[in-house]
């Protein structure tokens, strides 16, 4: 056990925890919505069992994702998708959770949490698989599980605090988006399909890809955010004229 912690890739753990906190807000909302009509005595059971089921399912998905990243062009595709996820994080759409129906029975609530988490966790799975790529192959799965164990309680029980921090310090979101871009750049340049070009297999090229990915996400994300705010401002002024 001690060897595990001494050889653990702590920067990857940090990345996984940050990713889960930033991308897991919706999952915390789903848990709250699914359990809100349960009897008070069963709410904590619903949260615990639903979260446990969601963690197990997510670990399975991430195991598959980590394995598939060795297939040529999948890292490249995953990196592109991760770039988009980072940009979307910078300029989130106002999605509602009206389709998450509260359950009045414990098993129904648990099922709702697990199914909804599976549907909504594609971004988490790809991002965490990308973060785990930097670790020792023998430790990747254990790293993912450890990162999830650390971060899931923060999401479930600390979601309100996390959301307040994100509102108060928007730079955290920018940092998180840049982190996703950093991981995406590493995924793209380390795709097995690029092995035929030795120039890409250099520290300078790899570092440049990381930086380029981070900058691309932040710059495009800021542009999308401004565009969205401008559009919302235009819609509000148009609505004001009609009244």
Automatic annotation (TrEMBL):
Topology term for the membrane: Multi-pass membrane protein
Xref: InterPro entries: Integral_membrane_TerC, Integral_membrane_YjbE
UniProt keyword annotation of Transmembrane helix present: yes
GO annotation, cellular component aspect: membrane
Protein's cellular compartments: Membrane
Main location: membrane
Domain of life according to the entry: Bacteria
A Pfam family reported for this protein in Swiss-Prot or TrEMBL: TerC
Ranges that cross the membrane: 12-35, 47-67, 141-162, 169-189, 204-224
Keywords: Membrane, Transmembrane, Transmembrane helix
Family of the protein in this entry: Belongs to the TerC family.
NCBIfam families: R_switched_YjbE
Protein name (Swiss-Prot/TrEMBL): TerC family protein
Organism: Trinickia dinghuensis
């Amino acid at each position: 056990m001690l060897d595990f912690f001494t050889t653990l890739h702590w920067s990857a753990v940090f990345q996984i925890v940050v990713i889960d906190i930033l991308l897991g807000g919706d999952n915390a909302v789903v848990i709250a919505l699914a359990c809100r009509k349960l009897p008070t005595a069963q709410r904590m059971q619903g949260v615990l069992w639903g979260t446990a089921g969601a963690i197990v399912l997510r670990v399975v998905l991430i195991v598959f994702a980590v394995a598939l990243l060795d297939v040529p062009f999948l890292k490249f595709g995953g990196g592109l998708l991760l770039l988009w996820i980072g940009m979307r994080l910078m300029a989130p759409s106002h999605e509602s959770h009206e389709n998450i129906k509260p359950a009045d029975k414990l098993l129904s609530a648990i099922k709702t949490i697990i199914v909804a988490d599976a549907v909504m966790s594609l971004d988490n799975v790809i991002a965490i698989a990308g973060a785990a790529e930097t670790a020792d192959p023998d430790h990747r799965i254990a790293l993912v599980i450890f990162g999830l164990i650390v971060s899931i309680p923060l999401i479930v029980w600390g979601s309100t605090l996390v959301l307040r921090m994100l509102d108060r310090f928007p730079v955290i979101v920018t940092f998180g988006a840049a982190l996703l871009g950093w991981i995406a750049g590493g995924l793209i340049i380390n795709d097995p399909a690029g092995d035929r070009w030795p120039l890409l297999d250099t520290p300078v090229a790899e570092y440049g890809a990381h930086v380029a990915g981070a900058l691309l996400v932040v710059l495009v994300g800021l542009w999308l955010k401004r565009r969205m705010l401008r559009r919302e401002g235009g819609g509000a002024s148009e609505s004001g004229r009609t009244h």
